[in-house]
């Protein structure tokens, strides 16, 4: 028998690592699922092609539910996975479900933080804490106006466009959510982290 080339990804692990940007249906939504509903799962596979993603997200139609264990039939035709085809039987658990065809009764926290912001590479790539943040007038309807820095970036660093990224606020929160209580503040505010690690409001630098 040919060895299976794919496996299902545990979506709960992803949601724990990226709580502000990765949607995982609530337990209430999953409890509403019945035979005939569609759910989306992540099918991982190995590839040596650097231009090919190592996973396919595909829909499965539920045929049976038994104590949190699901059976269903694949409702998509895989693009890269050769030992899977439309209609194949798939067995999975609650932890594998990343989307459903029903409305989630629980609002997603992700929807609150889709507006964009500017953040320095020190935070996004180097993993440093946010040390200084301020909110300016938004550039457009997708911009929150928030700007996040480590606090000690030089003028030369800030002039280099490669050191700044325009991303969702949720992406920044995945790195450092200590700023969460401040995000509802108005345009024009500035905050700096003090020696105790607390944010204090300051005049504009």
UniProtKB/TrEMBL annotation:
Highest taxon in the source lineage: Bacteria
Q: What range(s) does the DUF2314 domain occupy? A: 23-102
The record's section on InterPro entries has: DUF2314, Imm33_dom
Question: Pfam families attached here?
Answer: DUF2314, Imm33
Segments forming domain Immunity protein Imm33: 117-202
Which PANTHER family does this one have? DUF2185 DOMAIN-CONTAINING PROTEIN, SIMILAR TO GLYOXYLASE I FAMILY PROTEIN
Q: What is this protein called?
A: DUF2185 domain-containing protein
Q: Which organism is it from?
A: Proteobacteria bacterium 228
